[in-house]
Amino acid sequence: MEFFTTLPWPDIVEATFDTSLMLGASFVFTLLLGLPLGILLFLTGKNQILERPRFYAALSFIVNVLRSIPFIILIIVLIPFTLLLIGTSLGVAGAIPPLVIGAAPFFARLVETALREVDHGIIEAVQSMGASTRQLVCRALLPEALPGIIAGATVTAIALIGYTAMSGVLGGGGLGDLAVRYGYQRFQDNVMIVTVALLIVMVQILQMIGDRLVLRFSHK
Amino acid sequence: MSSILEFQNVSKNYRVRKCDIPALTDIDLSVTAGEVFGVIGHSGAGKSTLIRLINLLERPSGGRVLINGEDVTRLDDAGLCALRQRIGMIFQHFNLLSSKTVADNIAFPLRIAGRHSAAEIQKRVAELIERVGLTEHTHKYPAQLSGGQKQRVGIARALATQPQILLCDEATSALDPQTTQSVLRLLDEINRELRLTIVLITHEMNVIRTLCDRVAVLDSGRVVESGHVADVFLHPQHPTSRRFVYESEDIDEETMVTAFSHVSGRLIRLTFRDEATYEPVLGRITRQCDVDFSLLTGRIDRIKNVPYGQLVLGLSDRDSGRNINEALRRFREEGLVVEELN
Ligand SMILES: Nc1ncnc2c1ncn2[C@@H]1O[C@H](COP(=O)(O)OP(=O)(O)OP(=O)(O)O)[C@@H](O)[C@H]1O
Ligand SMILES: [Mg+2]
């Protein structure tokens, strides 16, 4: 009984809300940035319609660099950039730039992979109809790769939950912050447990939505 | 000028590890408007490369490809898109969009062209679905169709923009024999009713035999023989063409030669065509000239609409060959082709 009565409910509700907000906002920006980046990676890759070996190598390198920096370090490295962009590196808003920059390259790679899964014959057939590159991408490639892209977006959203918890530790607020303040600094195990439980529930919900959508759009 | 498509001295090399590997050499071909032109060749002969040069899915390394007298390699991007909308293409593996229904797949090239209202598209799609006999499958996805049905969708899609030329890249190679026949019948219908020029490539003699007016035999990137299908396949000159004929008739040349070496008398191959196929010429002439014959092998069939018969006979007489010579002369007089085999 003591487990529940000593829980700081208002803080928990607020932290959950903050995490959802960080997750939602950074997810939207990750999609907006990662999708075009993934398409660009795909199109300029080897044997693809806009093959540009040097451009691809350069872009690919940048993406790899961003993906190989541990997220906690990325937050710190990006503080000047975040200050410039948002005005603060703290709170929900301050957490979003590093989240997006950490997740977008990851998502872009998943988009590239999903596009590569599209049968080359389909690209050829659409080209043989006289489609422009833009029509090819928007009307054929994206619809064909949609299930794969949704699966990638789901994985990215779940990775973002992990990232939001980390950015909480560095002043981002949300469930991560709560876990550190109560669980780590005041040894309140029950807060820690509830936090983890909430994160698990979030992951489960996202995965379920993602799986449903993949099924909905998959006609293979 | 009734030639709708022309290859002039075309060559194509592929660059593999800084080396130019020739895939096609010195190709000269001319396709007449309204005909079905077939290209036959073994795997790796360069058939796909050849057909893909027509709509510039591949660029030629040398020579010119003319469509209606216009050099396609000189077109700019807009010109190329317009050209491609006038050329339909179907594929061995159908290449349908798995995310779109039958109707949406067929509407796709019309939407790409962007010149048609939604109502027009709907009407045209309904017509095409009816034409290829898929009315009850309109709202299915490709994954729910059989191979033959998928190829019918492919054909309807290729016809959507009312092209002048239809390119078929091994369109029936993934289908069973019965489905192949029904797809070939559909293509034949389309060719006759729409006066649509068809260029097809295949490695199956049967496809050429049922559908094509003229054929080119491709071997290691070169055209080794070409002409009317009946001419090429009743009297193949090049070893590759001969091999295709024997393969399609399940004949092993060597076994045949050894078997016939035991036959006494003269070995003759007689070829009848058109009306002569159904005339009792053989019986009449051998009787009149007092010549005996043994029938060794033969085939009575049709090549597209041309009935023909081709028989290998062993001829003997009691007059040291004079009667036989007389019989052969009369066969020729009747318009049959006579070839001596020994
Ligand atoms: N993109 C490519 N790069 C390098 N070489 C190629 C390429 N495409 C084809 N080739 C080569 O060109 C030759 C002709 O190939 P092509 O695909 O035209 O043959 P095909 O007659 O269609 O054979 P199949 O019946 O097996 O489809 C082959 O030797 C092949 O290896
Ligand atoms: Mg091929």
Short descriptors:
heterodimer, A: 220 residues, mainly alpha, MetI-like fold, B: 342 residues, alpha/beta, Rossmann fold, Alpha-Beta Plaits, 2 domains, 4-stranded antiparallel β-sheet, 12 helices, 31% strand, elongated, binds adenosine-5'-triphosphate, binds magnesium ion
Low-pLDDT windows of residues of chain A: none
Number of helices of chain B: 12
CATH superfamily of the largest domain in chain B: P-loop containing nucleotide triphosphate hydrolases
The chain-level mean pLDDT of chain A equals 91
CATH level-4 homologous superfamily of chain A: MetI-like
Overview of the molecule:
Chain A has ten helices and no strands. The mean pLDDT of chain A is 91. Chain A has a single domain (2-217), classed as MetI-like (MetI-like fold). With 220 residues, chain A is mostly helical. Chain A has helices spanning 2-5, 9-44, 53-68, 71-77, 79-86, 91-116, 120-128, 133-172, 175-184, 189-217. Chain B has 342 residues and is α/β, with parallel strands linked by helices. Chain B folds into two domains: 3-248, Rossmann fold; 260-340, ACT domain (Alpha-Beta Plaits, 2-Layer Sandwich), CATH 3.30.70. In chain B, strands 6-7-8-3-9-10 form a six-stranded mixed beta sheet, sandwiched between helices. Chain B has a four-stranded antiparallel beta sheet with strand order 2-1-4-5, with helices on one face. In chain B, strands 12-13-11-14 form a four-stranded antiparallel beta sheet. In chain B, strand 4 and strand 5 form a beta hairpin. The two termini of chain B are 44 Å apart. The mean pLDDT of chain B is 91. The chains are: A mainly alpha (220), B alpha/beta (342). At the A-B interface, helix 7 and helix 8 of A face helix 2, strand 6 and helix 3 of B. The site of adenosine-5'-triphosphate (ATP) has 13 residues of chain B, from strand 1, strand 2 and helix 1.
